[in-house]
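TA notes, week 10

Several of you asked for a full example with nothing omitted. So below is the full record: structure tokens for the whole chain, then the designed sequence directly under it. When grading your own attempts, check the secondary structure regions first.
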């Protein structure tokens, strides 16, 4: 035997084969991927449709009644139903096994949850301080109210789409979306209650009176239950059935999110066109831009301070800056139905956070390591 022959590295035993977690079928994946690649353009088209054809969106935004004979009538509204569909789809797609690695290294998860509570307490007082220096009659309480209802919401489920488009860490992103959603019955009233003293007049009274609705009927029934139902379906359904459900629900939820964007935009833009207020529009854009920049900047600074890996840092930054603006819009139409102009900063924030997310997850070329030659025995 040649003593200079290269030593073969010891072979490790093959891991036991485990049944892979059910995923979407290839046809569903291709359809979903096609929709996600064009999601930005589709959002712009939704805004354009709301601008030029707001009628159907206004009709969908109203509360309707379904007669049930002697039992009375069932009241329903389109926006909460669409939000529930989007959150059910998000829960249905949670990779539960991948979350195990996140629980073993929970630094990013804990940091994201803490920052999700801290950022509103930093950004909103700064916005309120600046708006009180303006000639607005209520000291900017309307805009501050809208921003409170945005930043108090859990991490947007759509953030997982952006990590999928870039180099973000998907388990970290999914964990932050899931944890912030399940904790929202506690965190949303907590954040709103802490920031209500910054408001004046009717806005403070309205949010104080709506605290019970926000804690129960909205965050638990409208946010937590649909997401939990999706997770439960993923756990109990057999793999063939789960594949069929994913094939139908995921594209339907993407279309539902676009329809929800159209409905919310119709309410905001139609009221603005009926009574143009250029200063309000400019203020809404400025406030949304300031809060968005602060949120993303704090997230990026925290990721650098914690010395997180680039994919995990990207996901943490997205989680800090991307709030569920659709849920905030639904909450505004529920608690403040007579003030549709408050949807303007919500729409502005939704566009700005998507623009910022695109920059955060933008792919960079990776360097390929040179092949390592096999080691030989001396």
């Amino acid at each position: 035997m040649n003593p200079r022959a290269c030593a073969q590295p010891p072979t490790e035993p093959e891991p036991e084969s485990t049944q892979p977690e059910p995923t979407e079928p290839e046809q569903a994946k291709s359809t979903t991927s096609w929709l996600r690649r064009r999601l930005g353009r589709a959002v712009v088209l939704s805004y354009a449709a709301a601008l030029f054809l707001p009628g159907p969106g206004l009709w969908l935004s109203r509360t309707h009644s379904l007669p049930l004979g002697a039992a009375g009538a069932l009241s329903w509204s389109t926006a909460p139903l669409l939000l529930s569909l989007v959150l059910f789809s998000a829960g249905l797609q949670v990779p539960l096994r991948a979350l195990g690695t996140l629980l073993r290294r929970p630094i990013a998860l804990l940091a994201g949850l803490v920052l999700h509570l801290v950022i509103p307490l930093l950004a909103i007082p700064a916005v309120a301080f600046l708006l009180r220096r303006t000639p607005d009659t209520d000291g900017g309480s309307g805009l501050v109210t809208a921003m409170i209802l945005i930043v108090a919401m859990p991490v947007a489920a759509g953030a997982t789409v952006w990590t999928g488009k870039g180099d973000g860490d998907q388990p970290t992103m999914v964990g932050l979306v899931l944890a912030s959603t399940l904790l929202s019955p506690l965190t949303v009233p907590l954040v709103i209650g802490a920031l209500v003293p910054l408001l004046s007049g009717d806005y403070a009274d309205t949010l104080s009176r709506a605290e019970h609705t926000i804690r129960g009927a909205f965050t638990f029934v409208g946010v937590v239950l649909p997401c939990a139902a999706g997770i439960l379906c993923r756990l109990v359904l057999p793999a063939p059935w789960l594949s069929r459900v994913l094939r139908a629900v995921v594209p339907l939820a993407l279309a539902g999110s676009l329809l929800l964007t159209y409905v919310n935009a119709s309410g905001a833009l139609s009221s603005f066109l009926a009574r143009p207020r250029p200063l309000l529009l400019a203020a809404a854009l400025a406030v949304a831009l300031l809060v968005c920049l602060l949120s993303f900047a704090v997230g990026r600074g925290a990721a650098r301070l914690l010395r997180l890996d680039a994919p995990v840092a990207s996901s943490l930054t997205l989680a800090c800056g991307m709030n569920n603006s659709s849920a905030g819009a639904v909450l505004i139409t529920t608690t403040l139905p007579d003030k549709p102009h408050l949807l303007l900063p919500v729409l502005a924030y939704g566009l700005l956070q998507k623009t910022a997310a695109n920059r955060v997850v933008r792919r960079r070329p990776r360097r390929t390591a040179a092949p390592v030659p096999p080691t030989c025995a001396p």
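Confidence is low (pLDDT under 50) at residues 3-7, 11-19, 364-378. Use that as a sanity check on your answer.
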